[in-house]
Amino acid sequence: MNIHMIRSDKVYRELLEMPMAERRGYFKEEILAPYKEKFYKQGIPFEAKQEGGFDIMMLLSWMHFMPEMLTAQQLPLIDRLDDSVWQSCERAIRDSLARFGSVTLPVQDYTFTILLAQPTAPMLQINDGYSGDGGIPGYLFLSLVPNEHTLSRLPSALAHEVNHNVRYQFVDWDGGSLKEMLVAEGLAENFAVQMYGKEKLGPWVSKTSLDTLNQVIKPFLHNHLDVKGVQKITAYLYGDEIAALMGQEGVGMPYCAGYACGYYLIQYYLEKTGKTIEEASLIPASEILAEVEEFWTGTTR
Questions:
Q1: Which of 75, 98, 239, 282 lies in the 20 to 30 Å Cα band around 167?
Q2: What distance in Å separates the CA atoms of residue 281 and residue 290, rounded to the nearest whole number?
């Protein structure tokens, strides 16, 4: 198993010593170029087709410190990304992958880095300062505002993303259906909790009360399980507030409704079937959902 750790902290320090005109190209080459295949699979251009057009740099600018924005003021944040942080991340990736030792993983090479997020970015604020990306096999990264809280969450956040990474080595991505995303996010968060404890449960679940889950989220999502398309499912999965930040219409759902629902749905599935989280992570969503019809009408406690 090969894990390519891109030490973004060192790149950020080097950027601070560079002329503005050279920063953008250096950042793309050192940090983003190894992810080109991932961006291609996601339909994200590495280079804009025209000046000012959409590309990976524009996408990252919505949440992150871009090369031209860095000043000495960000040094305390960069300093927090020390050797111990990177060692902890590599250990979390290896430990998470090792949980799937009963199967041969088709992907043996993994690329990981940490992107420095802006504390004022609304998307990061609502997620308590951190988020991750691991849906394309072989590629992982975390976005965070480095502080005591977010750094303590790195291993569990990485376990969540590794679970996605492994799942999509065995389960075909269906283009973005609500059914798949409910199951996938529920699997990933249950996997992270089993590895690092319920105290590390992500805000995308912990901020939802069981009353809200039972009375608002479950009945609504059950009636809309057939919604398909990445843009169409945004509000169902992330809630209206995040949907608005992404320029999408709301549907009346609270913060990360789909994540919370998926978490408890998978808990129910595991308890009912006796499957391990590792076994369940490799099962198609349709098979999992077929086993839990009573989840939707029962009361989650």
A1: 239
A2: 15
